[in-house]
Amino acid sequence: MPGPETIAPPPEFQDSHAILGRNIRAVRDSLGLSRETVAERAGIPADYLGEIERGEKWPALWRLRAIARALDVPTARFFEFEGERTDDAGPVAQLRATLNKRSREEQNQALRVVKALFDH
């Protein structure tokens, strides 16, 4: 009996690797983060992250969790396969993308402003 790695997926699932990779890249791009930054945060090589994003590699679950943690999103976000949006351009995503480009001090200052606006 062949092992699970030798069984080809049914045709409707053959693009799963590519979709997973596109989902990861869409989140990374929406946050304005480089591949190198995310790879460093996740503790994986940047080239390997590139292979994942191109659908060339299927990472272990712990690596997906590390990438999700590096992007500050739930791991489930990568598994939206049925045309669900992963490139959320809503206000929170826009704020996160803006803050990710700032220094830690500027991020803390922005947090103080937000707290002052909403803590009543």
Would you count the extended β strands for me?
A: 0
* Average pLDDT metric: 82
**What is the general shape?**
elongated
- Give the N-terminus to C-terminus distance in angstroms: 65 Å
CATH top level label: Mainly Alpha
Give the strand content: under 5%
Order of helices and strands: HHHHHH
Low-pLDDT residue spans: none
> Helicity range of the residues?
55-70%
Q: Might you state the CATH topology name?
A: 434 Repressor (Amino-terminal Domain)
Largest sheet: none
CATH architecture: Orthogonal Bundle
The domain count comes to: 1
Tell me the number of helical segments per DSSP (H or I, 4 or more residues long). Answer: 6
- Return Rg in Å: 17 Å
**Any idea what the CATH superfamily is called?**
lambda repressor-like DNA-binding domains
The assigned structural class equals mainly alpha
How is the secondary structure organized here?
Blueprint: H1 16-30, H2 35-42, H3 46-53, H4 61-71, H5 91-100, H6 104-118
Helix pairs in contact: 2-3, 2-4
Could you characterize what this model shows?
The chain has 120 residues and is mainly alpha-helical. It has one domain: 434 Repressor (Amino-terminal Domain) (Orthogonal Bundle). It contains six helices and no strands. The protein has helices spanning 16-30, 35-42, 46-53, 61-71, 91-100, 104-118. It is elongated and about 55 Å long. It starts with 15 loop residues before the first helix and ends with a helix.
Write a brief caption for the model.
With about 120 residues, the protein is mainly α. The chain has helices at about 15-30, 35-40, 45-55, 60-70, 90-100, 105-120.
